[in-house]
Structures are given as structure tokens and as C-alpha cells.
Amino acid sequence: PHATGMPRNKLVMREEVATIAELVSDAYLCGYYGKWHLGDEVVAQHGFSDWVSVMDRLWEEYTQDTYLSRFSDYHQFLVADGEQVEAGQPLLLISPAEEQTWEALRALYLLGDLEDLPLVERFAQGGGAESARIRQQAAATAQAIRRRAQSQQEN
Q1: 3-state secondary structure (DSSP) of residue 22
Q2: Which residues contact 47 (CB under 8 A, 6 or more apart)?
Q3: Separation of alpha carbons 129 and 136, rounded Å
Q4: Alpha-carbon span 130 to 133, nearest angstrom
């Protein structure tokens, strides 16, 4: 991600950054399904011929004012199916499996910064159905983030 200038989500990906969909031949059908988080969620782009978006109203990521009035493909699907969807209403809740949560916490143990601390601490406190393994990893991750931040302040 750093080589492309995209060290985190919620940045607009520069037009000159090529995706895998732009690098393979036209013989491939390249699909995007989900959360782009690299700008202009509501329009197909960067070589993807099949595009299904699920996130609405990421206004700070839109590069054109005309996108402000558009809705995601998932929103449009729900409305066409008869659902009543209001702006700002959650459409989807993603709950990762324990192994995915543990792997994410391990990655944050190595790379996380203070911005990640509130979420990590939520897992460490065990307010939900987190296992002891997840709480233990979250506590170790929070401690590693604090040590790294303190070390950076000292240097």
C-alpha cells in the first residue's frame, strides 16, 4: 500500500495507480464487490468491468459533486426489493470470525498506532462475546501500540 501512496483507507487513489484489473488482459472479467475505500465508491473505475458497491455517502471520498446524489448498488437493490432505506441507516453488519479478528490484532501489534487504540481496547475489555484469546491478544496489542508511541515521542 505504501508504494501506491495509499497507507490507509479513506484516501482517494490517484488515477495513475494501476489495479490488478487494469494490468490483466481484456480476456479477464474483473469484478469488484464490497467496500472500495479509495474514492468514488458509487462508480465503476480502475478497470473493473463488474462493480457492485455497498457503501453510501462517503462524501469526503467523492471527487465529483454529481456523485453526492448517487447511492450504492446495494442500496438500490434493497429499494428495488421493497425495503425502506433512509440516508445514514446501516445496511450491513460485518462480523469477522475469531481467526480474522486475531490476525488483525496481530497485524496491529506490529503496525498499529494511537489511532487504532480505541478499537483495540474495546476488544481487550471484552464487552462483547470475545474469547479469552482475543482479549489477551488485544491487551498485548494495546501495550505494543503504547510502547511504540512512547518510543516515537522520545526520538
Answers
A1: helix
A2: 18, 19, 21, 22, 23, 30
A3: 13
A4: 8
pLDDT digits (tens, 9 = 90+) for 96-153: 788 889 999 999 999 889 999 999 999 999 877 789 999 999 999 999 999 999 988 8
Q: Is 81 exposed, middle or buried (0-12, 13-18, 19+ CB in 10 A)?
A: exposed
Identity of the residue numbered 90: P
Instruction: Compute the distance between CA of residue 26 and CA of residue 143 in angstroms, rounded to an integer.
Output: 48
Half-sphere exposure (Cβ direction) of 101: Cα atoms closer than 13 Å: 22
Contact 48, 75 (CB under 8 A): no
Q: At 8, is the pLDDT very low, low, confident or very high (cuts 50, 70, 90)?
A: confident
Q: Which amino acid is at 154?
A: E
Nearest residue to 45 (alpha-carbon basis) of 71, 28, 63, 60? 63
pTM of the entire predicted model: 0.49
CA 10 – CA 48 distance, rounded (Å): 19
Q: How confident is the model at residue 33 (pLDDT cuts 50, 70, 90)?
A: confident
In a 3-state reduction of DSSP, which class is residue 16?
coil
Q: How far apart are CA 1 and CA 37, in angstroms?
A: 13
72: how many CB neighbours lie within 10 A of its CB? Answer: 21
What average pLDDT does the chain have?
85
